[in-house]
Each structure stands twice: as C-alpha cells, then as structure tokens.
Amino acid sequence: MPVEAFEIAENGGANLKDVDDDGRPRRTGTLITASAHIITAVIGSGVLSLAWAIAQLGWIIGPTVLIAFSLITWFCSSLLTDCYRAPDPVHGKRNYTYGGAVRAYLGDVKYRFCSLAQYVNLVGVTIGYTITTAISMGAVKRSNCFHRHGHQAPCKVSDTTNMIIFAAIQIVLSQLPNFHELSLLSLVAAVMSITYSSIGLALSIAKIAGGGHVRTTLTGVTVGVDVSGTEKIWRTFQSLGDIAFAYSYSNVLIEIQDTLKSSPPENKVMKKATSIGVSTTTLFYMLCGMLGYAAFGNEAPGNFLTGFGFYDPFWLIDIGNICIAIHLIGAYQVFAQPIFQFFENYIRNRYPENGFIHSERIINIPIIGKFPFSPFRLVWRTLYVIITALVAMIFPFFNDFLGLIGALSFWPLTVYFPVEMYKKQAQISKFSKTGIWLNTLSSACLVVSILAACGSVQGLVQALAHYKPFKVS
Question: What domain of life does the native source organism fall in (predicted)?
C-alpha cells in the first residue's frame, strides 16, 4: 500500500476505497469524459479559420496538410499517454502535469523549457479564446442588424464590451477548484463545438447547392489575381500555423489523463480517447475546411461564421455563434486550469506559513451546495482573467493570433517532448532506425513551426500598422 494512502487511512481522513494509489481522492474519469475533454480542447476556434487556410493552400496541399497534422497529433499523443506514469506506463509513479512527466523522464533543464513553452501557449490560448468569443458575440448582434437593415448597413459592435462580459463569466467559473470539476462543463462544450461545426458545414453545403460561381484552384489563392507573390508566401506560412492551432491539445493531455480511473490502465483508455477525439475532429475539419472553401472559393473569410461569410438564415447564424461562445467559455477553463494549478502550487510551496494563501473553507451556495472557497484563489484567478482580457482588447486579431499560438506550441509540445520521452522510456538509440525516423519527424515539424511563426508575425505586424485599440468596428 502506498505510504500516502496508508497515512490518510490511519489519520481517519478518508476510507481507502475513496483514494487512489497516490493517496489522492479517487479519480472517476472514463473514456467518455476524457473524449469530451479532448473534443472540447481540440474543436475550438481553429475550425472557423480552416476554410481560409485551405483557400491559401488549394485543393491538393490543403487537405494533405490537414491529414498530416492529424496523423502527427494522433501519433505523438499516443506516445505521450504512456508518459503519464514513470518509469513504467502502467505501474509507475503518476505525473500530474505535462511538465511533471517531462521532469520525470528528461530532467530539470528540459522541464524548465517545457514549462515555459506550455504555459506561454496556455496563456496564449486563453487570450485567443477571449478574442474569438467576443467576435462571435458581436456577430450575433451584427447578423440581426444585417437582417433588419440590409447587408450594406454599417452594423458596428464593440468587441471590448463583449470581452468584458466574457471575462466576468470566466471570473466566476475560475473559482472551480481544479480540473476534476470540469467534466459536465466539458460535455456541454463538446456538444456545442460539434453543433456549431455542423451549422457551418450545413451552411456551406446550402451555399454550394444554391449555385453561384466561386473561384477555387488546385494551388489556392492566385498570385497576381488574389494576392502578390510575397503575400502568397506569408499566407501559406500563416495557414500552417492556423492548422497547427486547430490540433493543439497535447499541452493538457496529461492533465486530462489524470482525471481517469486507474482501472483499466489510464494509458490504454487515453489512447482510445485520443483516437476518438482526433478522428472526430479530423472528420469535421476536413468537411468544414473543404466545403467552406468550395462555398467561398479564394475569397473565403478568416472566420466563416463571423467574416461575414454567411448572412442568412440569420437565426441559424445566431445559434452557431451562441454555440461558439458557450463552447469557448468551457474551453477557456480546460486550458486555464493547468495555469491556475501550477501557480498556486508554486506559491503555496514558496510561502508555507502564509495564512491568506493557504486558508480555505467550505461555504454553502444556493443551488450549487457546498463549495470550497479560497480568498487567494479568488484574488489571483480574477486578476489573471482581467489581464488576459486586457491583452485581447489590445490585440484582437483572430487569424494572426491563432496562427502564432499554433506555431509556437506545435513543435515543442505536440512533437518534441512526446518523442524525446518515448525514446527515453523505450531506450531507443539515436542511430537506430526508429531513432532516426523519430528525429527526422521532429526536425521536419520544427521547420514547419518556424515558417508558420514567421507568417503569423508578419500578419500581426501588418494588422498593427492600421489598428487603433478599443475602437468600435
């Protein structure tokens, strides 16, 4: 029996039936909840830019890149699931976070590099989701305005106001103590993500069926007609970042796996959940990206539900954007909780005697019932939400921001660390056939990430040159 569980039982703190092998409260996650977490994390705002990304790449390279990113994400995520426990993937010691797994397998130096990459990415995603939700909330108002006054009406909305509303909601939800309390939220968010993806898909099919000529090509936007040669290169690079962002979830995989029951083994369940999650999202991505391109051609908007790619039926557009907002309200928490846990554990270990930091009590809330309240959690998490909202207000650039986040996170978090940990665990030699293949994969993905980052930075620079913060548009 592990020492932690024995001590808890001896002190009367819990029945052994209520704790896992590490002494923590027994985990209750299942294949269904893990799959919901993954779908919530993967099918996010990235799906909205895929029609634009395919338009930059064309009919041949676009779908090929989508499938390639899907296979790489699935393969590397499968490797990562075996790293939840160390050194044995079934009976080893648990790693509660992605960074913890890296430290267990690769040591402190790479752990610090991983933590920097992971938390920069997580912060970026929460900012990106704030931007996307505000745009979708504004799109509902614009859609109704266009319906009443015509498509040429100057229907202006304030993204700043919508970001404030979103931030207020997140301040409340951020008081949930940890990841284990998010199962219901993730299930709702997963349903929402599939719903708005299906709406976008249905609208694309309806637009195609309705006729009308749109120009599509095998190689995407045409140099000299749609864009200049330089713009074609930068947009191609940025589209890689947008697609990489669409598959970004490896940075929370270990945290999701830590919610699973210990029987059957977590890695086996998580591999199944990864296959379900990635295959489901790839199906939607292929359909939304390709049919979106078929509907709009080389003029596909950056966000096909808010672009404005569609105007009618306005009520269906509204439902789609409301679903986006609900989904990203939950997805924000999936990505923010690891940040909260990391910072709070660090501060509590740094100041073990501080009463404000460590105080927590149970309060009764009508309808909700008993809820653990911490003054420190309230103050710091509220401050975090406010800061991310302020950054989103200053840089509300949907496509460029998503592309940059995807580019910065894809190689280190999706590919490099899972590959390196697997090589360590399986004791694969650098110069063996498997070692050479894995190193080649990692190197190729590094090049893709660098190119995607360059394209997104160039897009941000261009956008900033003509932007005035906090304006109504």
Answer: Eukaryota
